[in-house]
Amino acid sequence: MRPLDENETTLVFNKLHKFVGNNLKNIVLESQSHEGPDANPGRYCFRLQKKRVYYVSESLVKRATNIKREKLVSLGTQIGKFTKSGKFFLTIQSLNLLAANAKHKVWLKPTSEMSFLYGNSVLKGGVGRITENIQVNDGVVVFSMADVPLGFGDAAKSTVDCRKMDPNGIVIHRHADIGEYLRMEDEL
Amino acid sequence: MGKKKQKLVLPPELPPEVPDEDIEVSDEDLQFFNENLEYAGFVSNLDTHSITKHVTRVADAKEGDLESLYEKRLRKRLENKEKEPTAVEVDPVDALPVKTLDGQLYYRRVAKEPKEAEPVSGDPALVKLTKAEKRAKLKKLRKEAKKQAKEEVQQTPQAEVLDEVKKDLTAEEATEMKKYKLAELGTALLADPESNIKNIKEMLEISKDGNSAIVILGLKSLLAVFKDIIPGYRIRLPTEKEQEMKVSKAVKKMRFYESTLLSAYKAYVQKLVSLQHQAVYKRVAVRCLCTLLAAVPHFNFRDSLLAAVVKNITSQDDVVRKLCGTAVKSLFMDEGKHGGEATVEAVKMIAELVKAHNCQLHPDSVEVFLSLSFDEDLGKSRSSDMDNRTKNKNSKKRKGGDEPNDMPNNQGKKIRKEMISKTREEVSADFKAASLAQDPQEQRRLQSQTLSAVFQTYFRILKHAVLPISETSSVPGASRGHPLLASCLNGIGKFSHLIDLDFMADLMHCLRKLAGRDSKLGDSSENYSCLTVSERLRCCIVAFKVMRNNLDALNVDLQEFFVQLYNLILEFRPGRDQGEVLAEALKIMLCDDRQHDMQRAAAFIKRLSTFSLCFGSAESMAALVTVKHLLLKNVNCRNLLDNDAGGGSVAGAIAKYQPHAVDPNRSGALASVLWELNVLLKHYHPAVSSIASGISTMNMNNSQVYHSHVSPQQAYMELSQENMSFAPPTDIKTANNKRQKGMDKLPVKVGSDLNLKVQFDENEVRKKLAEHFFLLRDIQENERLRSELDRTTLSLNLYERYKKRKKRKTR
Amino acid sequence: MAGPKLGKKKGNRASNAPPRKKQKAIFTLEKELEKEDFLSDSDSKDEPEKPEDSDNEEQEVDSDEEEQGVVSDEEEQEVYSDSEMSSDGDDPFANDILQGSDDEVSEEGRDEDSDSDTSDIEKKARAIDEEKAREEEDAEAELQLNIKEEADEFRLPTAEELEQEAHRPPDLSNLQRRIKEIVRVLSNFKSLRQDGATRKEYVDQLKMDLSSYYGYNDFLIEALVEMFPVVELMELIEAFEKPRPICLRTNTLKTRRRDLAGVLLNRGVNLDPLSKWSKVGLVVYDSQVPIGATPEYMAGHYMLQSASSFLPVMALAPQEKERIVDVAAAPGGKTTYIAALMKSTGILYANEMKESRLKSLTANIHRMGVTNTIVCNYDGRELPKVLGNNSVDRVLLDAPCSGTGVISKDESVKTSKSALDIQNCAHLQKQLILAAIDMVDANSKSGGYIVYSTCSIMVAENEAVIDYALKKRDVKLVPCGLDFGRPGFIRFRGHRFHTSLEKTRRFYPHVHNMDGFFVAKLKKMSNSKPASQQSEPLGEVEDAPELTESNDKNNAEDNGQKQQKKKVVAKENKKLNNGSIKFTGEKANGERIKKKKPSREEIAETREKKREALREVKRKAKAERRAASKKKITEAEGSK
């Protein structure tokens, strides 16, 4: 387990910024963590362990240091992975973090929830609500109408274009959805 | 001017033929005149002497003819009377015809009657008269009466005696004479335009007099005359060929009449236009122009009229401005008179004007757009063959829904809408058939032009408002932000359903920028012109209207505007900002919206109820009504009402409530409790306390949804009025009968659960209240500091600029 | 007819017969009297097998419940048989009374030649009998018997019959019948056993049949039979055959039970709140949708876990901002519950030894939105080394076990487990619990608790382990905070356990309708260890002689004294090693420092500080403790 180095940090922050925009500073700087037994658990920080990036309270990090690297499986919230080729991508576990800070949201009609949870992209017909001012390739967090975060992806169309689309055009390309907890528990 | 010279050399013979060739000449001169009007003005002012010389000889007359004249006039009037109504019926543009069950149409006759009632003073029915104008008319009437009385003493004109008679008339007599003359000519004209059309020329001459009083009089009387005698069609002058070819007596006479009238009218208009630059005549000239424009927009020289009027629409003189405004409005109102071209021109001109002045104009200039009216079914009438569905669709595609809030995929509404549109179609269809209106294509073209011009203007204003001061401040009077913005926003709000989807994007962008202005402390340091809270609220409202009216495509969630509203509630000061705007915003943004996400709704509920503690009763009433709406709508927020987390926290990531949070989604309001309600129960205003108790008991019995159908606005209104005469002790019964049913049995409940609640958490409430007011205090503190900072920075910038300038000067 | 007259006469005679008999017999034979009515109902049961002449009289007689009547007329009918059979017949009245039991036998003897043609009349007779069920099975049993020309009264199959059965494919109905019979016989052995057959024979037969019918291996059946009386055993085994209801736990980090229930109801899931003892449990009756694949499940609004798995966590009662260890965490049901109770504050070490189960563990933790966990992959016994002794507030040890409580979940347990397995489990569990205790900090303000739980019902894995821990460490049992469940065994077969073990809780499928489960909650009293432990931090199970034998001593004495005495013992050896604690502490540090990698300096320091602090506390504590203990001892001596 170690802190991220320079370009890893940039990679991670870019990805996050795509989804949370300026809330990134809430996540990184102004985050007062509540995990950890100490009176003041300190802030959250990013740690790299076995190619995975974790978003952890500092006090947890402090206590995790006496666990052997090969024995440490996970700590805090995993938010993403680095691929062999050094690319970074967010995993479904980061959903809670993203949903709390999301800049762009899409609400799915109950009818289309399931298809999304089986790993399909979001079609216009399935969109119940969408935040305005989404540009193409913005990161979008997908909610159910009951505000249950279901997953995230990036926008295939800007909000304005969405109006003109036909109902089965793709609005959002899926990155991750909570269905993965069942479908691919082992890859997580 | 050539003609003037000619006149000068041989004054004695003024044969009736003179006008004829005069017309020919003047016709060639027309362009010349239009090019340089001031010449004409200059000339006319120049040789009033000579003119008066031979005009005034018409002054005296013989009794004998006078009587004959009178009875003739009477007869004329009678036959006019019986002629007129028949004319009216074929011209139904004044009002939509009533269609009876058996399908034939009745046109309103009353529309034109007043015009005939007293022809001299123009008809008030057609031209909406401002007070000033009415007064003027009355004055003129009186004058006319006087003249009539005097005329007994006078004789009808006789060319041969004129010369020697006029010699021995002194100046003031002359003026008197002129007055009489004017009146008399006018009446003559009115009596029988065709026969003594040439009197107009003389009147014109008179009104070129040096004496302002005379001139004014002349103008006015001419106005009256023209308004009456100008025909319902546009005069086209006969071409040479037509001149050559042989025509019947009547036709010749007609042509002569028309040409004379036309030339005179032209001269008159030119005169007006030239005169309006002189302080003395300004108002009169403008009034005349306006009245003409309003009365005879279809007639020739409209564009010059328009130009003049529009130029004046933003003058400092409010009388003038009002006049022009009303004139333009009336122009917009009844397009029937001119089939819309005038509208288009006017709008375009105004657009130009705004552009030219870089948006630093008086709001009225844009206000007039509000009175524009667009017929949305034009498109349909064209595609009436297609089946309704497609028609509806494409008409919606082109220009929003018909009702402002028509929901997508709502069958019932759709069908109803189809019905409406269909019936409306039929009506309009055979209305067109009946009225000889031009084909819908044409109309649509005009409309689209108008629309584009209007929105162009609006967007220009918006864009301009978005720019930072540093660029606008070069324009004088940019000190107080954006005069046009408010009316512009209203306009957009009104026509939001007509906005093309392509504009939508950057429109929203502008609005967002505007609404976002000052929401961050950072902005004040950059020298943005800060908008008032109400303006920014308006921005939000407009954004919502626009979105809602184009919702049918997909349901867009205007997150950022919610954020703005959330912060605006914080900045809102009951005294400083209009509460009704806030109320409207609450209504449109929070109550009308179908669903919110839980966090946001909770955040708003919390903040609203918090601030309803420090709002005035009216505002807090509106706020509470909104809170109620929200609570009714999303059930999850109800656990703000019960004290325990119910064995689980839904507050999500944020563990405790952060009252300062900028983003409602981040405030974690669900972790808090609506303790404010308990305080509000003790509110001095019974209405407020009762609704507070209603909300706090909502969880127990969801059945009662009274008051939920009252919109914040209504609530606000009714309380703000009530506050005028509000005496807490006496007010209870009024408040109670104001409340809906269920309210009256409420106070009992209030009492009960009030004192039980109180004995429960008396001290807790006290504690919380204390900290809460600390909070409020330092929020206000922040506000004050912020504003101070703004002021200082602004003044600093100014000082910088000033120093720079000085430097430049010194060099 | 003669029948009725006879009957009347007999009736009259009968009426005057009892009094004199009673006067004599009443003092001597109370016991027999009780037995008597015992028998009477049993013989009324056997009456149908009588010949019809006596039959109708029989009916009227027992229609008016005249006990003595029965006896009397029998007596005069069967004088001879009496005389032959009555064992010691000096006192006729005593005889009369005893005959009840005797004539049973004799009748049965006689009935052996009565053949199946009588059965239809018997049916009539049965109609008026009140215990239908019993009747039924008798009937068929009797039919069977008749077919086989056997005695209607159940008797154990002979060796050669068993021989035959072994060759034949098992005749299930027959097995079932026999099991029922044996159970019946065992339920009141004295009366129903066939003479000569010992209880043991019956039990062995029962074991054989059960294991062959339900497919248990002999060991398991043996163990179960040892633990339960036969009737309950049957209930238990039956309960093992059917599955427990599906339970789910609301994740209070994300939603509330009310809301969740609402949503699921809308999805067509038919559910109810679990029961009064859980605020977060829901029990699912049926569901249109797969309950494990709803959007809510994926969103982590609830966790599918058995009701029994709530218990240890509720017993642990974690507090916010605590340091808690879950020694065997996978698949994370309990872990996430703990985290939820901690409201995701504090720190929660979720340890799991098997790599294979780590995936599901982490997945669940993330799905439930738990952010305060450190998932690590150690053998639980190493944890004290890793996390440090006395370093956490609470430990949940849901020990790996034989799984004999969850047979309903996996059938394989029935056959797979052997005595050896249990031994291994127990051994491992003892090591684990010592490790767990060592981790806990006795001086923690909020905590200092260890919860030990297994899904086994084996005493060796539960009470034995706790008892061992009680001896090995300075811990005491505290109530689990669960108001239901059966108290643990205090004495079982040969061995007796510490009396406080009744504070532990056992849960059974047939009683609580949840998996067989055991929960014990320990409070750590002090961080000291017995001197014998110093050499090897992990408690080796075998040694620690002096304590065990002292315990044996204790067993001799009765509980009250034993307890006090034990306390004294504990005090004493505490006093002994108090002196050496400091030294040992340093020694421990020494070796730890040796082990430590350079990267871990700062932790060592922190630990150092902590230990310093603790020592301070202890030194203070020591003084008065010495004083107190001295006083105690003097008192004790005084009392002796």
Automatic annotation (TrEMBL), chain A:
One of its GO terms (cellular component) is nucleolus. Coiled coil: none annotated. InterPro entries: NIP7_N, Nip7_N_euk, PUA, PUA-like_sf, PUA_sf, Ribosomal_synth_fac_NIP7, UPF0113_PUA. It is found in: Nucleus, Nucleolus. Its main location: nucleus. Interacts with pre-ribosome complex. One of its GO terms (molecular function) is RNA binding. The lineage of its organism: Eukaryota, Viridiplantae, Streptophyta, Embryophyta, Tracheophyta. Residues 104-179 form the PUA domain. This is 60S ribosome subunit biogenesis protein NIP7 homolog. GO terms for biological process: ribosome assembly. It comes from the Eukaryota. Required for proper 27S pre-rRNA processing and 60S ribosome subunit assembly. SMART domains: PUA (SM00359). It holds the Pfam family UPF0113.
TrEMBL record, chain B:
GO terms for cellular component: nucleolus. The keyword tRNA-binding does not apply. GO terms for molecular function: chromatin binding. Residues 380-390 have a biased composition (Basic and acidic residues). InterPro entries: ARM-type_fold (IPR016024), CCAAT-binding_factor (IPR005612), Noc3_N (IPR011501), Nucleolar_cplx-assoc_3 (IPR016903). Keywords: Coiled coil, Nucleus. Residues 537-692 form the CCAAT-binding factor domain. One of its GO terms (biological process) is DNA replication initiation. Residues 178-268 form the Nucleolar complex-associated protein 3 N-terminal domain. Belongs to the CBF/MAK21 family. This is Protein involved in the nuclear export of pre-ribosome. It comes from Handroanthus impetiginosus.
TrEMBL record, chain C:
S-adenosyl-L-methionine binds at A328, A329, A330, P331, G332, G333, K334, E352, D379, D398. Its EC number is 2.1.1.178. GO terms for biological process: maturation of LSU-rRNA; rRNA base methylation. It is an enzyme of class 2 (transferase). Its main location: nucleus. Residues 54-93, 101-119 have a biased composition (Acidic residues). Residues 1-12 have a biased composition (Basic residues). It is found in: Nucleus, Nucleolus. Residues 236-525 form the SAM-dependent MTase RsmB/NOP-type domain. Keywords: Methyltransferase, Nucleus, Ribosome biogenesis, RNA-binding, S-adenosyl-L-methionine, Transferase. Residues 1-140, 528-640 are annotated as: Disordered. The active site is at C455 (nucleophile). Residues 29-53, 120-135, 550-560, 599-616, 624-640 have a biased composition (Basic and acidic residues). GO terms for cellular component: nucleolus. GO terms for molecular function: RNA binding; rRNA (cytosine-C5-)-methyltransferase activity. Belongs to the class I-like SAM-binding methyltransferase superfamily. RsmB/NOP family. This is tRNA and rRNA cytosine-C5-methylase (Nucleolar protein NOL1/NOP2).
